[in-house]
Design a protein that fits this description.
By secondary structure, chain A is an alpha/beta fold. Chain A contains 6 helices and 15 strands. Chain A has helices at residues 37-51, 69-78, 94-108, 127-135, 188-194, 235-244, and strands at residues 2-6, 9-11, 18-19, 26-27, 33-35, 57-64, 82-87, 112-116, 139-149, 152-159, 162-169, 172-176, 199-203, 215-221, 230-232. Chain A starts with a strand and ends with a helix. The chains are: A alpha/beta, B alpha/beta. Chains A and B meet through strand 3, helix 3, helix 4, strand 9 and strand 10 of A and helix 3, helix 4, strand 5, strand 7 and strand 8 of B. Strand 15 of chain A pairs parallel with strand 16 of chain B, so a sheet runs across the interface. Bound molecules: flavin-adenine dinucleotide and adenosine monophosphate (AMP).
Chain lengths: 248, 311
C-alpha cells in the first residue's frame, strides 16, 4: 500500500507575521519557512505505518512554486520515499488543490491520503474533506489516534464534545490533529541521502486543473488591537476591579 | 434575493447555540432563511429551530443513518436540498468544519471558513494566520456561497419565531465505508466552553491533573466553564475538548481568567473576542499581559486560594 502525504510550505509558527502596509498581502520577506506543523505529524504517521510493515511507500506531495521543493526535501529527509511537486505560482484555493491532489491520487492509487487538519497560514481546514468528497471516499478529520487493521482504519477524532471513534474502509482520507504523534527530528546524514531521492514535478496545467476559484481575497488588514489593560497588585484589588466593571 | 440554508447542529435533544449564531450571520446576509435539521427523531430539535425569530421554514430530515453527524451521510442530504439556495451556512465547530468543505466540494465551489463579518451578500471578512490578519473575501456573484460561521463573532439570534416545519424523506442511504463507533465524552456538569459567560483557564504552570482542581474549584465558585492551553492538554492534565486557541475552541465569554498561561499567539487567537481578559502569571514579561484587561504578576498557587476566599 502507498501512502500519500500532503505538505504545505508555510511561515514558521514561531514567526509573528504582519500585514503589508498597503494591505495587499502578508509581509513574508525573509521570514523562516517550514513544513506546516500538522503536515509533519501527517508524515510521521505515514512513516510509522510503513515501519510497522503496513505500507510499502510514502510519497510526499506539495503544491506551489519551486520554493516548496525545500519542504519536500525535508520530507524526504524525514523518511519519505519520493516527492511530487505540483507546480504552480498561483495561490490556490482548497478546491483547486483538492482537484489537483485527486489527479495525483488517480495516478498513484494510494490506500491512504494523510493531510494536516489545517494549514496555519490560511487556517482553512478544508482540503482533506474536499478531496474525500471528490474522490467519493471516507474522511476522518482531526484524528488524534489511529489503528490500521487490514482494509479498515479505526480512528479517534478530536471533536468539540470529546473523542469520537469511527471506522473507515480504505482507501480513505485522514486529516491529523496535534496529539497524534511527535514528529521525529531530521538527522544530517538523512539530509544528504534525501538529495538522491526522486522528486517529480508536475505542472498544474498538465494535470488539467483550473487555478481560478470562485473566491477572491481583496484586502488584508491587521486585526483590531485590544485596549491596553491595567495591572493590579493583590487578589483583593482584582476582585474589586471586577466588581467595579460589573463582572461579579 | 438571497436564500440561505443553515445546517442545524444538535445532539438529538437540543439545538446547539451555534445554530442561533449562524442565524445572526444569515440575517446579516438578508433574504429568506431556512434551517435544515438532519438526524433521527428530530421533532423536538425542529421545534426549537422553528422558534428562532427570522426563520421561514425548518426542513426536518429524519432517518436512522443520519443519527450521527457523519459528513459522508449528511453532505449528500444537504446537496439534495441545495439547488434553490444562494448561501449554505454551517457553524465553525468541529461539526461544521468537517461537513461544510465536503458540501462545498460536492457543490463544486470554494468554501469560506470562519466568517466573522458580512460586508455584502457576496463579501465577507475572516481571520487568517491565527488572527494575525483579517481578510476581505469576495465570492463571484453567480456562484453559491458555502461557509462556516465563526461562532465567537456572532450573538445568538433571538427566539419568538414560528416557522413552518416541513418533513422530507432522506434521499440517500448510509455510506457503507464509514461506521460510527462511539464517543468518549468528558462532558461534566460545567457550562459549555463555547457558550459560557465566564471561563477560567489553566496552563502548563498547573503542573498536574490534581493541581488543576484549583481551576475547577474557582470555576465552580464563579459558575464558569473551564478551559486550558494546549500545553496543559498535551501534558494530560485535562481532556482535549478543553483546549482553547487556533486549533482548539475559539470562545467569546464576557469574562476570561487565564492562570499560568504564557499567551502564545495560538492561544490568544482563541480569546480575542472575550469581553474582559484577566491574566495571572508569575512572569511580568509574559505576552498574555499584552492582551489582558486586568493583569496580575504572581504565583497562581497563592492567588487562586485567595480569590476563592474573597468570592
Ligand atoms: C500548530 C500549532 C497549534 C497550536 N494551537 C494551540 C491552541 O489551540 N491552543 C493553545 O493554547 N496552544 C496552541 N499551541 C501551542 C502554543 O504555541 C503554546 O506552546 C502553548 O499555548 C503554551 O501553553 P502554556 O501557556 O500553558 O505553557 P507555557 O508557554 O509553558 O507557559 C506557562 C506559563 O506559566 C507561567 N507560570 C509558571 N508557574 C507559574 C505559577 N506558579 N504561577 C503563575 N504563573 C506561572 C510561566 O511564567 C509561563 O508564562 C499551538 C502550537 C502549534 C505549533
Ligand atoms: N499547497 C499545498 N500542498 C500540499 N498540501 C497542502 C497544500 N495546502 C494544504 N495542503 C494539505 O491540506 C491540509 C489542510 O490545509 P487547508 O485546507 O489549507 O487548511 C494541510 O495540512 C496539508 O496537508
Amino acid at each position: 500500500m502507498k501512502i500519500l502525504v500532503g505538505i504545505k510550505r508555510v511561515v514558521d509558527y514561531n514567526v509573528r507575521v504582519r500585514v503589508l502596509p498597503n494591505g495587499s498581502g502578508m509581509d513574508t520577506e525573509g521570514v523562516k519557512m517550514s513544513i506546516n506543523p500538522f503536515d509533519e505529524i501527517a508524515l510521521e504517521q505515514a512513516l510509522r505505518i510503513k515501519e510497522a510493515g503496513q505500507a510499502t511507500e510514502v510519497i510526499v506531495v506539495s503544491c506551489g512554486g519551486d520554493e516548496c521543493q525545500q519542504q519536500l526535501r525535508t520530507g524526504l529527509a524525514m523518511g519519505a520515499d519520493r516527492a511530487i511537486q505540483i507546480k504552480t505560482d498561483a495561490p490556490l484555493q482548497a478546491l483547486s488543490l483538492a482537484q489537483a491532489l485527486l489527479k495525483v491520487v488517480e495516478r498513484e492509487q494510494p490506500g491512504l491520503v494523510i493531510l494536516g487538519k489545517q494549514a496555519i497560514d490560511g487556517d482553512n481546514n478544508q482540503t482533506g474533506q474536499m478531496l474525500a468528497a471528490l474522490w467519493n471516499r471516507p474522511q476522518a478529520t482531526f484524528v488524534s489516534r489511529m489503528k490500521l487493521q487490514g482494509e479498515t482504519a479505526t480512528v479517534t477524532r478530536e471533536i468539540d464534545a470529546g473523542l469520537e471513534t469511527i471506522d473507515v474502509d480504505l482507501p480513505a482520507v485522514i486529516t491529523v490533529d496535534l496529539r497524534l504523534n511527535e514528529p521525529r527530528f531530521v538527522k544530517l546524514p538523512d539530509i544528504m541521502k534525501a538529495k538522491r531521492k526522486p522528486l517529480d514535478v508536475l505542472s498544474i496545467e498538465e494535470l488539467g486543473v483550473a487555478v481560478e476559484g470562485n473566491l477572491k481575497i481583496v484586502k488584508f488588514a491587521p486585526p483590531p488591537q485590544r485596549q491596553k489593560g491595567i495591572m493590579v497588585e493583590s487578589a483583593g484589588q482584582l476582585v474589586q476591579e471586577l466588581k467595579n466593571r460589573g463582572l461579579l | 434575493m438571497s436564500r440561505t440554508l443553515i445546517v442545524a447542529e444538535h445532539d438529538g435533544h437540543s439545538l446547539n447555540l451555534s445554530t442561533a449564531k449562524c442565524l445572526s450571520c444569515a440575517l446579516a446576509i438578508g433574504g429568506d432563511i431556512d434551517i435544515v435539521v438532519l438526524g433521527q427523531d428530530v421533532a423536538t430539535v425542529s421545534q426549537q429551530a422553528a422558534a428562532l425569530a427570522g426563520v421561514q421554514k425548518v426542513i426536518a430530515v429524519d432517518a436512522a443513518h443520519l443519527a450521527q453527524p457523519l459528513a459522508v451521510n449528511w453532505a449528500p442530504e444537504i446537496i439534495s436540498l441545495a439547488a434553490s439556495y444562494s448561501h449554505l451556512l454551517g457553524p465553525s465547530t468541529t461539526l461544521g468544519k468537517d461537513l461544510m468543505p465536503r458540501v462545498a466540494a460536492l457543490a463544486g465551489v470554494g468554501q469560506l471558513s470562519d466568517v466573522m463579518e458580512v460586508l455584502g451578500t457576496h463579501s465577507f471578512r475572516r481571520p487568517i494566520y491565527a488572527g494575525n490578519a483579517i481578510i476581505d473575501v469576495v465570492a463571484a456573484e453567480n456562484t453559491q456561497v458555502v461557509m462556516t460561521v465563526r461562532i465567537a463573532s456572532w450573538h445568538a439570534a433571538a427566539e419568538g419565531g414560528s416557522a413552518v416545519i416541513e418533513q422530507r424523506p432522506a434521499t440517500g442511504s448510509a455510506a457503507s465505508h464509514t461506521r460510527y463507533v462511539g464517543i468518549e465524552s468528558a462532558g461534566g456538569e460545567r457550562p459549555d466552553l463555547q457558550s459560557a459567560a465566564r471561563v477560567v483557564s489553566g496552563g502548563r504552570a498547573l503542573g498536574s491533573a490534581e493541581n488543576f482542581q484549583l481551576i475547577y474549584r474557582l470555576a465552580d465558585k464563579l459558575g464558569a466553564g473551564v478551559g486550558a492551553s494546549r500545553a496543559a492538554v498535551d501534558a494530560g492534565y485535562v481532556p482535549n475538548d478543553m483546549q482553547v486557541g487556533q486549533t482548539g475552541k475559539i470562545i467569546s465569554p464576557d469574562l476570561y481568567l487565564a492562570f499560568g498561561i504564557s499567551g502564545a499567539i495560538q492561544h490568544v487567537t482563541g480569546i480575542k473576542d472575550a469581553g474582559t481578559i484577566v491574566a495571572v502569571n508569575k512572569d511580568g514579561e509574559a505576552p498574555i499581559f499584552e492582551v489582558a484587561d486586568i493583569g496580575m504578576v504572581g504565583d497562581l498557587f497563592t492567588i487562586i486560594p485567595e480569590l476563592e476566599r474573597l468570592l
